Predict the 3D structure of the following.
Amino acid sequence: MSGRSSQHTPADRELIESVSARQLVQFRDYVFSSAYIKSNAERFLFFDWIDPVALRNFLGSHLSVVGDEDAADLWGDVSARELMDFRNYMFSPAYIKTNAPRFLEPDWIDPCALRKFVDSRPSVADMPPVHGKNLATTALATQAIKRDSDVEVTAQLTRGASRSSSVALPDGIGCENITVESTAKLSRSSIVISSDAIDSDDEDAGLIESDTHWEDGFTSMAGVGRFRVTKKVTVERIEYLPDLASVYPIFRTPTALVIDLNDPKHQLTDPRTNDLYSLDSLVRNADNDAWSWSAGSGTGNSTADVTFAPGEDPVTCRRATADCRGVFTCENVDSALLQVTRFELDPSSRNAVLAAQAEMRRKDGTTSEHNVALFKQSVVLNMKCMAIESSGKKCQGAPIMASSKGSHGHYHFMGCSGWTRKFDKGHQYHPIPDNVDEHLLAKALTGLPFSDDTSKDTPPCTKFVPGSTGFKQMFCPHPHIVSGVAVRSRIVRHACKTKRSIYVPVDLSIRKVLIVTNGVGHNHLMPVLSKIPLAAQEKYKECIRAVGGVGATVAKVDNAPSTKQLLGGKTPAGFAPGLHSKPAKAKIIAKIKRQLFPNGTDAAGVFSFYLNGLTKPLPERYIHSYLTTPDGGICILTCVPYLLKLLDNPGVRSFDDDTTYKRIEGKMNEWELTLFAQIVARAVSAARAYINRGSTDFFEMLFNELQRVKLMVTGKPIPLKAFVQGGNLEIMNSDMDGAQILGICRSVMKHNDPEYSGIPNDTPPEQVSQYFVKICWRHAKEPVHDFKSLVSPAHYARLLDFVYIKRKEELTEFSTFVRGLGIKKILDWWSHKEMHPWIIPSLVKSQSRISTEVWDTTPSTTSTNEGQHAWTNSLTGTGRSLVEAITTAYDVDVAVADEIKLTLKTG
């Protein structure tokens, strides 16, 4: 818990400790989400979390801005180091750790006390933090100080001894009771602890730095000399590893590997049992060779007393011995790639295979014979007929080339031999691709060679199958031509004689393991580093939580500033090679989301959110309705009440509503009601609904519910000026979706004031639309564009201008003109407009009951709505589960409400 990180250079520490506390807080809030900061408060007590490169970029990019003035005053312009020293001076280490969230915000700072403390730094502020490694124990501190200055220091190096008796307890800090005179007259030279004193380990005496190359980049220490590990096992060398390795060598001389797993990052809990993972399971999990070993983990086939280091007492361990299962390959694999005897971690054999595989991919599809062999293997041999005879018997036919009339140069297709004129339904069928030669395909299907020699043979294969797959993959996926014949190659196993034993202490408090092998080198190449150790998985999960699990994607997590911070400036792949795999990272993200949404991410999961939200005060609710219909319809209405109130703002004269299909995967769609708020000059999504039906009755229910929520939030119905007194909304802009338009027309009349509006309550919905609906003219003109090639330029121009008809007589003339064209496509288009009495009045100004002034001064497009769709997509992503779509939209809508409030407050 020290304020320093071993990753920080002296220059890094100088930068971090000199930057102002306010800037450091701004940097923290820029990099990490607020939810992550709150749930990981203890992480931000000190400086270990800081990536100096990112901090320098932040300071140089002018991203640091002054936020809340009161908070800025409290943080002050003191340096981060001064503020940390002040905190450590005022509070005990135990109090700081227990109350870590308190120190995320500046409320704990008494400015007067801070000012006195900073002014008195020559006498007290040079004290290092009294916590963590710097003063891990009083005894250790005493030893270090005695060595450096022969000053007697006892358990008084605590909070009580470093503070004047006149200083109140933490909850009572204030200018009136702070005295910072000459309390704790200890100079830095008398209390600083030498890093040599802390890091030195007497057990390391006699150890040398090992020359073993580890793929993970760490260095091991070695003890050379004959040493008895157990009664039956003696080695000539011990390697002490500081961490788990991704691959282990086979030592040519008898060697024991001792791995220290005391680091807290290895104390991981198995969610299936709620117990810590066994130590050998951690080894196996990180080992990319693990799938080659026959034994599992957590068990043993015997026990032995093991001595881990010279001079230590033996420890009873369980022993698990495993055989290497070797490697699985295509039976036609290049024999040169199998000529391996692997002791050291030499990647040359692996690199040779990777290069050969790249060359093989380069040659794929470069010959007609190869294309035919690939089609036969990937398509023909996998065809299975699913046709069922009238008797209920399944078709037993096989794939055959059947004649066709000719398509794309082919006169055959792949059909079923079971097809007859009487049994002609449901049989398998597959067209022959353009790049597959029919004559060569006929040879391949009958087992005839493409040529009389081996000139068309494919090169030796490079397919190596992971041990985790083994014989689960029975056939090689690559096409092979052997002696001119297209064949399907099987997967075979090459046995390996390497063995190893892992010794794990029975006492679970002893967290180290010992590994020995039989000294026989592997006969197969080094594995690709594809595994993600549990510790690396947990670290990536932390990156996901820092971004926010809701709406997280691989790209979003990998590119987040917080990810670079948490991974020590490395990319995920640089942190752990297995994190190069996008599917693997997506799997980890999916696991986090399952934890976040235990009730699922579909409508059922949303329902639990809805019920939880009902316990909140109305202004804080977001999901206001969860409605279902007998036919399986679902309508989930959401809004931030503050944004819904904008419908009553006098500057809002119109709104748009439309459905968007991109944000949600599956059958649910998002319906969005948007407006343009003149008071802040920005578009706003005032409400969203998530629906899976689109009938008029369904939209009537949706608008009824919107009216109910509007009345609940504001005490007033939707303020449509034509229907209710004091209304400000003159127009609804829509596309040509009749269900939405007629649905709102039905709903509006339930709140109509006929004495004010002059509109009888029994007015049909088709006529109600004339008072407030404008259909975006683009939706009427789009079909007209298809008519350009069917008519003359003059007629085409007249068709486009029909929305500008000024009198009823002109409308009759236009109808006569269209019918006179005699073109079916155009007649169908116009018949649709005439058939529905609500369309033309909503498209043509002269036919509407909306006044000319209102029509001319309100939008004639749904651009606000379309723009909001795209804007929301850019912030939340697309193809989301329903729960993610709603929760990410919530974040967006709350942020918009906060921004509008801030704009109105600050101007």
Observations:
- Residues 777-857 form one domain.
- The first strand starts at residue 208 and ends at 209.
- DSSP finds 34 helices and 25 strands in the chain.
- The chain has six domains: 10-198, 202-326+497-517, 330-494, 534-596, 603-774+861-903, 777-857.
